[in-house]
Amino acid sequence: MADLTTDFLGIRSPNPFWLASAPPTDKEYNVRRAFEAGWGGVVWKTLGEAGPPVVNVNGPRYGVIHGADRRVLGINNIELITDRPLETNLEEIARVKADYPDRAIVVSLMVPCEEEAWKAILPRVAETGADGIELNFGCPHGMSERGMGAAVGQVPEYIEMVTRWCKQYYDKPVIVKLTPNITDIRHPARAAHAGGADAVSLINTVSSITSVNLDTFSPEPSIDGKGSHGGYCGPAVKPIALNMVAEIARDPRTAGLPISGIGGVTTWRDAAEFMALGCGNVQICTAAMTYGFRIVQEMIDGLSRWMDSKGFEKTTDFIGRAVSNVTDWQYLNLNYIAKARIDQEACIKCGRCYAACEDTSHQAISMSADRVFEVKDDECVACNLCIDVCPVENCITMERLAPGTVDPRTGTVVESDYANWTTHPNNPAATAAE
Amino acid sequence: MNVDGGTDRADGIAASRLSAADLARNFTDLHPPYAPHEAAVAADRCYFCHDAPCVTACPTEIDIPMFIRQIQTGNPLGAAQTIFDQNILGGMCARVCPTETLCEQSCVRETAEQRPVEIGRLQRFATDAAMKTGTHPYRRAAATGKTVAIVGAGPAGLACAHRLAMLGHDVVIHEAREKAGGLNEYGIAAYKAPHDFAQAEVDWLLSIGGIAIETDSVLGRTITLEGLQQAYDAVFLGMGLGGVNGLPVDGSDLPGVEDAVDFIAALRQAKDLSALAVGRNVVVIGGGMTAIDAAVQSKLLGAETVTLAYRRSRADMGASPFEQDLAASKGVHLMFNVQPLAIRGNGRAQEIVLARTETRDGRLAATGETVTLAADQVFRAIGQTLAGLPDGLKVEAGKIAVTGPGRTGIAGIWAGGDCTAGGEDLTVTSVAQGRDAAMDIHATLTGR
Ligand SMILES: Cc1cc2nc3c(=O)[nH]c(=O)nc-3n(C[C@H](O)[C@H](O)[C@H](O)COP(=O)(O)OP(=O)(O)OC[C@H]3O[C@@H](n4cnc5c(N)ncnc54)[C@H](O)[C@@H]3O)c2cc1C
Ligand SMILES: Cc1cc2nc3c(=O)[nH]c(=O)nc-3n(C[C@H](O)[C@H](O)[C@H](O)COP(=O)(O)O)c2cc1C
Ligand code: SF4
């Protein structure tokens, strides 16, 4: 059996599955249930300053995007940070940590961008015995209007400044949680690094409007006929999150900076993918909110079986394994030439590949009167659209043309050596191949 | 079959074999309607195939992927319109079509996983939604001043009438029976279209306007083809198959020996099913849809034993495997390779002697072995025939010969549905033929 234990910034947890700072971690009651269910750690729902807590709206705070059979593909929310008093949260954190010493508890924080505010709260968090803090520089709604959350995360200088204060006034690990609502994720990550952050975590939610009610003409979720942009999360945001994680992981200026992966993790597979792209662990919110805490058992079992099947004994055996395979477009091998192949036995003759290719791509699939679909090698550019739209798994595959054969589309012989755009004759900026 | 009451085992033919509650349960919807969420889930399974095979398989060529996608996007009324554009009796067809041998058989998901998209039930979902609005989705075109007579208010006649009315012609349907609907009203199994759906559908269809129905108007008795030709600009014959094949065996004149179609018609018209008498031991002779329906409904009425006796093998049977399984699941005993020799009894049918058969050199022959079954009631279901065909029309295999869109060869006279040769004797094919004849009539009358 694979060992799922992770050591993230010196914080040990029995598995890499942490609950992200959100409703599932807003109270002692939930967190105890989560630990009983098997979660490796939690990032406590974001705490604010002492004094009267923030208030939430009293109408719907979530919108949703459904797939087939009302499967939740994405949720957006306009919830703020915790609306319970600071003292209550701190007491609960201390109690739960004492009862679950083997689990990770990190406390998420968001206070105004003033040194005094951070200086005031950090010792109080330290007293709870929590394992570390996460700076919420990501919340894109409500708090950002008050100069916190994403409003900080969008300005690298602020990130660096606040991170530095935290490292100054707090001894344990400091994780900086990044907002995806920026142009280039590497800049806030570099700022966090410069400020001394022990790690970054990402992504927080994506600014969004999920839908518009066509009777009332209000965005959803609607509060008395009006809506506000919220934060989008769940399976729909996973591709965005994976890319941002990869960008940081392969940036030489943040090389080695630990990453906690967040955004759409729903199954063990998603977790494995984030970790392969360099994340030391993952955080989950929407999947737990959709299915309850029990899903962590599937994640634990699935990840450990997969690790066994690959011969990985511990998580560090595969963390970061995919990073070196992420490259820039200009370095992709242009001599890799493939053609689509349709398995006639598996084909159910729906014709979707034909419609897609004929109407929107390269007219590279033929259709006979008796519904036999075949690839025209002299037109196929291997774009993959037919595979994407085929309802039968593995019915259509891409096969590489062996070097030495002639590509019927271009009439040229397939070369065996690697060659990319930087040396391509059509590239005005090409450097002559040596 | 009988859950609370228990079956009344009285010999002979008797009413009230089951309690009212059991009867109600037995005759409720065979395929219950979808709830909205079920429909959404079912619709999501459709792949929106290119040049979809299900459409090719539909005799009325409904754009199935399109209407399913409309359901999927929360537009059931648009879905219904897509259906009605091709098949104005889409509501009935959703209930009675043998989808397992038509659209659903050719669905690519049948190929892929032996579980097709449930096209029939989705069609019902959409058409029910549209009919529930209480409005009619079509308007008539400007009046053309042309008049068309239609004989028979069955699916063929109604489909033809609706299309003609829509195109601006005035239509009069001459119908021999008391109610319109044809076999939708008098033939289809009660559990396929409960709650008087057939009449509701006729009313909804007629609400387009421009269609008058004259009931008790019988071609060959109260009206003649020549008379219709003189009074109208065109005539469409859609009179179905009014006659039945006889059963030339000893004892077939005994009380208790009846035509299955009459039994079914009586059942369909019964206000109170417990007043309807059925035998304790019922034997149905035949192998088609009518035989299955008579057998199943006898069982559902509370007959103790029901045997369906077919002279050939299971594979030769006209009824689809789905219909056969349905009958078996209701407790009907299916017997193959047996044909009736004699019906016996003292003043009424009491038993039937069946001869075992086999196929020798491609021909059916008796083996010499016989089997005798108790039979208080024997239903003949060995085929319907065209009755009362006016002189002068070309006949082919006992039915009216037609070419193309229902042309009879006599100018001004079209025909469609079961009364014409070469069709499949299904509701949906009758609708297609009525509709296509209407388009041809329209083209002829307007010179387009
Ligand atoms: C018992 C039974 C069960 C069936 N079940 C199914 C099923 O589940 N699914 C399916 O698809 N098909 C089924 N069918 C077949 C289907 O009902 C017919 O194919 C369809 O009804 C034929 O339509 P039609 O309009 O041609 O004829 P009909 O429906 O027979 O209508 C003909 C009309 O013409 C009238 N008429 C007849 N003679 C005259 C006259 N001389 N003058 C004036 N009017 C006249 C009749 O009264 C009738 O109203 C079944 C048939 C039977 C008998
Ligand atoms: C209702 C809701 C409230 C959230 N509140 C917080 C919060 O207080 N602090 C925070 O850092 N992130 C918050 N998040 C963001 C999540 O922690 C997480 O980053 C995001 O949902 C992406 O992960 P997921 O796709 O697994 O849900 C919230 C998310 C949701 C859905
Ligand atoms: S064949 Fe099946 S999957 Fe394809 S369009 Fe028709 S119903 Fe949909």
Considering the chains and any ligands shown, give keywords for the structure.
heterodimer, A: Alpha-Beta Plaits, 2 domains, four-stranded antiparallel β-sheet, 19% strand, globular, B: 448 residues, alpha/beta, Fumarate Reductase Iron-sulfur Protein, Chain B, domain 2, FAD/NAD(P)-binding domain, 3 domains, five-stranded parallel β-sheet, 19 strands, binds flavin-adenine dinucleotide, binds flavin mononucleotide, binds iron/sulfur cluster
Account of the protein in words:
The complex is a heterodimer of chains A (about 425) and B (about 450). Chain A is an alpha/beta fold. Chain A has two domains: about 5-325, Aldolase class I (TIM Barrel, Alpha-Beta Barrel), CATH 3.20.20.70; about 330-435, 2-Layer Sandwich (Alpha-Beta Plaits), CATH 3.30.70. Chain A has helices at about 30-35, 85-100, 115-125, 150-155, 155-170, 185-195, 240-250, 270-275, 285-290, 295-310, 350-360, 385-390, and strands at about 5-10, 10-15, 15-20, 40-45, 60-65, 70-75, 105-110, 130-135, 175, 200, 205-210, 210, 220, 230-235, 260, 280-285, 340, 365, 375, 395-400. In chain A, β9, α6 and β10 (about 200) form a beta-alpha-beta unit. Chain B folds into three domains: about 15-30 and about 245-380, FAD/NAD(P)-binding domain (3-Layer(bba) Sandwich), CATH 3.50.50; about 45-130, Alpha-helical ferredoxin (Fumarate Reductase Iron-sulfur Protein, Chain B, domain 2), CATH 1.10.1060.10; about 145-240 and about 385-445, FAD/NAD(P)-binding domain (3-Layer(bba) Sandwich). In chain B, strands 4-3-2-5-19 form a five-stranded parallel beta sheet, sandwiched between helices. Chain B has a five-stranded parallel beta sheet with strand order 7-15-9-10-11. Chain B is globular and about 65 Å long. Bound molecules: flavin-adenine dinucleotide (FAD), flavin mononucleotide and iron/sulfur cluster. Iron/sulfur cluster binds near residues 46 and 117 of chain B.
Summarize it.
With 434 residues, chain A is of the alpha/beta class. Chain A contains 12 helices and 20 strands.
